[in-house]
Write a structure and sequence with these properties.
The protein is built from 12 helices and 20 strands. By secondary structure, the protein is of the alpha/beta class. Helix 9 packs across helix 10. The radius of gyration is 21 Å and the shape is globular.
């Protein structure tokens, strides 16, 4: 996301009262313009517009670092109705470029809520737009692909908006912005193993799931050298989810090249792509990505089908895996893309989807058990 205006909003969570006379525009890089009403921050941003098909979990989506620099169109129409709860954050840093919804509810009905979605977006300088036909936007993205957009309160022509978008550089430093700056620890009772987790934009529930499966976790910045990780003497290495093009995250790829084979490695989402790149495979950008729940994924060895939660715009090229030590272990049944790889000899494996869910199905929880088994064998 490239912010182009002030982060402070005048409405403080009351868009229907304080901003009802305003119009907030969405201008795409190919010149289409959509008008809606504002909520969240009074800010102007340029970001990539994508869609998410989840019916719940807008707080987890908004606080997921993997959405950095993206404006999320929610396909489910009713957003905001249960507010924001302090226990449900996936990160305390919001980096998304905007949230676009059909019907926004600013009067939550939930005994756990501590603020509204509008207030949360306002706190982090993120503009929201509601009153837009999100079904039309989702079909547009599906048919024409994800594209960059400008969200603005100014009365700009399509040509002026396109010029602003074209003049805004595409960011390539997303992981460095969302990764922690120094190591931190998550301890569990009666630990079985010690895990080092490389933070490329790690979700809180991943750390919680590792803890529930008996892992003491040391979370380190994404650019932590292999030599430093070896000195920590971990039983295994975890590589997290995160935003952006995996080819931009060279420090992690280089570290994985040095560590593969010396300890079990488990990667999720961006971590899956980075592990594949470290073994010599290649990645490519999907037309509109996979974002939301209920994506069916088949495990090639057993035929088991899991319903999965996903959030990614890049995929591993299946042909490129053939020339590496990896084998494809999981396939997406909707479009045939690679959803998992493994090098059994090195005890290294990864999946493109999110077995920790949050939000989403919990069918793939067994992958954490597999990681612990590799570390204890």
């Amino acid at each position: 996301m490239m912010s182009m205006g002030p982060a402070a909003g005048a409405g403080r969570g009351k868009p229907e009262q304080d901003m009802k006379d305003k119009v907030r525009r969405i201008i795409t890089e190919d010149g289409k313009t959509y008008a809606g009403l504002p909520f969240g921050a009074d800010a102007e941003t340029v970001s990539e517009m994508v869609f998410n098909t989840s019916m719940t979990g807008y707080q987890e989506i908004a606080s997921d670092p993997s959405y950095t620099d993206q404006a999320v169109v929610m396909s489910y129409p009713l957003i905001g109705n249960y507010g924001i709860a302090d226990e449900d954050y996936e990160s305390r840093l919001l980096g998304l470029g905007g949230m676009i919804v059909r019907d926004y509810n600013d009067s939550p009905s939930n005994f756990r809520y501590t603020k509204t979605l509008s207030e949360l977006l306002e706190d982090f300088g993120v503009p929201g737009v509601y009153g837009v036909d999100t079904r039309m936007l989702v079909r547009n993205i599906r048919d024409n692909g994800a594209r960059r957009i400008l969200i603005t309160d100014r009365d700009l022509s399509a040509e002026e908006g396109m010029q602003l978008i074209a003049g805004t550089p595409v960011p390539h430093d997303a992981v460095s912005r969302v990764s922690c700056k120094k190591r931190w620890y998550a301890r569990t009772a009666n630990p079985k193993v010690n895990v080092v987790a490389m933070d490329c934009g790690i979700k809180s529930n991943i750390v919680r799931m590792l803890g529930r499966h008996g892992c003491n976790v040391t979370v380190v910045p994404f650019d932590t050298p292999a030599e430093e990780i070896r000195l920590m003497n971990p039983d295994g290495l975890f590589v997290s989810n995160g935003p952006g093009d995996p080819e931009d995250v060279r420090p992690v790829i280089d570290t994985l090249k040095k560590l593969k084979g010396s300890m079990p490695i488990f990667g999720i989402c961006l971590g899956h792509q980075l592990l594949s790149l470290a073994y010599g495979a290649s990645t490519y950008k999907l037309k509109f990505g996979h974002r939301g729940g209920n994506h069916p994924v088949r495990e090639t060895g057993t035929g088991r089908i899991d319903m999965t939660s996903q959030n990614h715009g890049y995929a591993v090229d299946e042909k490129s895996v053939e020339n590496t030590a990896l084998t494809v272990t999981h396939v997406n049944l909707l479009d045939g893309t690679v959803e998992g790889v493994e090098c059994r000899e090195d005890r290294a494996f990864s999946v493109q989807y999110h077995p920790e869910s949050c939000p989403g199905p919990q069918d793939a929880d067994y992958l954490f058990d597999r990681f612990v088994r590799y570390m204890t064998q």
